Structure formats: structure tokens, C-alpha cells
Amino acid sequence: MPEGVISIGDYAFSRCEVLSTISIPNSVSIIGCNAFSYTKIRGISIPKNVTRIEGQTFGNCTLLSSLTIPSNVTYLDANAFFGCKSLTNIYNYSETPQRIFSNTFATYGTLHVPNGQKEAYMKAEYWKNFNIIDDIRTYNAIDTITNVEDKDSSIYTLDGRLVNDVPKAGIYIKDGKKRIVRF
Question: What is the CATH number for 23?
Fold first, then answer.
């Protein structure tokens, strides 16, 4: 699906029984009800601009086994994943458990949530039925930064290009580690 698409209408791909993979661009902000119902999709990442997952959006996607829900999703409607009996891994990036219903999911597999949020999900109605693991890092960070001191070994930019001259201020890779040059 091309970038720039902002909406996927109700029943858009419903019953496209040969549809097994799809990449939904982040430009999409609305996915209608039953949009992908009865397809053979195996995994889906909900785009970052989507805030609601409507009823039966992925209903009866019996091969769907993995789902990624970005932090912007605030609502998952009843039956959104009804009949998705293979759905065993859900990665939910929301720090606050969304409101869901007893029939939002067909089964309760493993739910991966942001670090430190396990207790909140264990207290949340219906989310507590999952096997909850708080193993999602919700921030981007470079764990270890050191100064580049030795000019004799090869130095690379973060995109893998060899640096031929003395590097300018920035972050580089030297000896397989991220390093910083300060001036």
C-alpha cells in the first residue's frame, strides 16, 4: 500500500482470502470495520497515526499470529480480533491499557507491554487475562558512548561509510562500538 493513503474503508479487503501480507503506511489514520476480515494475514503492525481499531477490523483472520499496537491507539472495539485463534503475540506500546471488551480478542496469548507497565495491565479488565511480559523499551537511546581517542583504527559513520579524514564532532562506530567525538 503506498505512502499517502490516509484511510482504509469498511470492508476494503474483507474476504480477500489470498491476502496474506500487507504493509500499511504510517499515513493511514483510519481503518474501517471489517477492513481485513476473513483474510490470511499472519502479522500486522498498526500504523502510528491510527487511534481506534474498529469492530471486526481483523475479524476471523485465523492465521494472524502477531500484532503490534502503537502507543497512539486508545480504543479497541468489541470483536476487533474476533476469531483470530492463532493470535499468540501482541506487542502493545501503550503505557496506559486501552479499554477493551471481553470479545475484543478470541484468545489470550502473550502480551508484551512497555517496561514497568505490567502491573497496570494486570489490573486492567480483560488485559489481565493475557500472559503479560513487560519487555518493550519505549525510548530510543544509545546505551554506551565513549570518546574516539585512537586515530589508527578504522572509523565508520552510523550508516556504515568509512571515514577517511579525522572525524568531525558526531557519533561514529569504531571497533564495533558507538563512540562520540566532541570538539
Answer: 3.80.10.10
